[in-house]
Amino acid sequence: MKLNEILNIDIPIILAPMFLVSNADMVKAALDAGITAAIPALNYKTNSELRTAIQEIKQHSNKPFGINLIVNKSNIYLKNQLQACLDLEVDYIITALGSPRKIIDQCKKKNIKVFCDVLNSYQAKKVENLGADAVIALNNSAGGHLGIHNAKDFIPELLSEVKIPIISAGGVANYKQYKEVMNLGAAGCSVGSIFIASTEAPVSLEYKNAIVHYGAKDIVITKKISGSPCTVINTPFVQKIGTKETVFEKIMNRNKRLKKYLRFILATRGMNKLRNAAFKASYKSIWCAGTSIEEVNEIRPISKIVKQLTSDH
Ligand SMILES: Cc1cc2nc3c(=O)[nH]c(=O)nc-3n(C[C@H](O)[C@H](O)[C@H](O)COP(=O)(O)O)c2cc1C
Q1: How far is CA 211 from the centre of its chain?
Q2: CB-ligand 1 contact for 82 (6 Å cutoff)
Q3: Is the domain of 30 the same as that of 176?
Q4: Does ligand 1 come within 6 angstroms of the Cβ of 92?
Q5: What residues make up the domain containing 24?
Q6: Cα of 98 to ligand 1 centre, how many Å?
Q7: Cα–ligand 1 centroid distance for 16 (angstroms)
Q8: pLDDT confidence of 251, banded at 50, 70, 90?
Q9: Per the domain annotation, does 206 fall within a domain?
Q10: Which of 24, 117, 161, 220 could be cross-linked to 96 through a Cys-Cys bond (beta carbons 3.0 to 4.6 Å apart)?
Q11: Same domain, 141 and 260
Q12: Global pTM?
C-alpha cells in the first residue's frame, strides 16, 4: 500500500520533520500542495506551544499530518508530547531513536498511525512485530542523522524482510530521484533538506542561502552535534572546529556510563550551536543539511518545490 492510500492524500511524500526548521506554516503549505508533513515536537519549547501549533494546522486543513517524537530516555518531555498528540488526535507519529513500543500501544487505542525510523532490517522487523504501520528507511544520503545503506540496496532488502510499507528517507531532490525510489518499491518518500530553502521555513536568510549556494561536495559528517553522525555544511566555522571527536570525547564515548552524560552535554551544546546558527547571522555557522541541496538553485515556495519534485519537466 502506498503512502497516499494509507493517509488518503494526493502525493506519497512527507515533508520530513526537521529540528529547528519545521513549523506550522510549512505543514499548512505542504498539506495545500497535496503532500503530508511532520514537525518534531522538540521544535516547541512548551507543551502548550505544541498544542497550539497542532490546533492551528487542524483549523487550516483536515488533511493528515504528523508529529515526530524522540522516544529514548534523552527526551524528558516525551510523556507530555505524546499526550498532546493523543488528546488532539494527530494523524500519525514518526518515532526516532529508541523503542517505539509504548508509543505504538497508546496510539493504537486512538487509531493514530505510527511510522518508525529504521537504519537496518533488524530494526524494521522489530518495529513491525511491535505493530508499526510503516518504516521510514533512513539511507546514507539522508540529511541529519543519516543511515548506513544506500537506497538501491536498502529498499529491496527491507521489501524481502518486512510486510509493512517502506517510506524511503534521504537523497530525493528531483523528479528522477523520486521516481527511482518509488520504482524500487517504496511506499513513499520523506524529503527534508530541499525544503529548508523554502519561503515558509522560519530559519535565517543566511541558512536558506547556504542551501542554495553550497552543494553535495560541501556536506560533511560530524559527531560533534549530538554524538551520533549528523550531516552539516562544511562552513569555515565547521572546518575550524573539525568534525572528529576530541580525545576526551572518545574516552567518554567508550565508557557506557560516561557516554550517557557526554551525549547529554554534547546534545545540549550542539543543539544550542545549531539553534544560534539557524536563526541569526553568525560567523559560527553550523547548518544541518544533506547532499540533496545540490539540486537547490533558489528559495521557492513549498507549492513550487512540490510541483517540481513531482512533475517530469
Ligand atoms: C535540518 C534537518 C533537521 C532534521 N531533524 C530531524 C528531527 O528532528 N527528527 C528526525 O526524525 N529527523 C530529522 N531529520 C531527518 C529528516 O527527517 C529526513 O530523514 C531527511 O531530511 C531526509 O533526507 P534529505 O534531507 O536528503 O531529504 C532532519 C534533517 C535535516 C536536514
Answers
A1: 16
A2: no
A3: yes
A4: no
A5: 3-201+295-310
A6: 16
A7: 6
A8: low
A9: no
A10: 117
A11: no
A12: 0.92
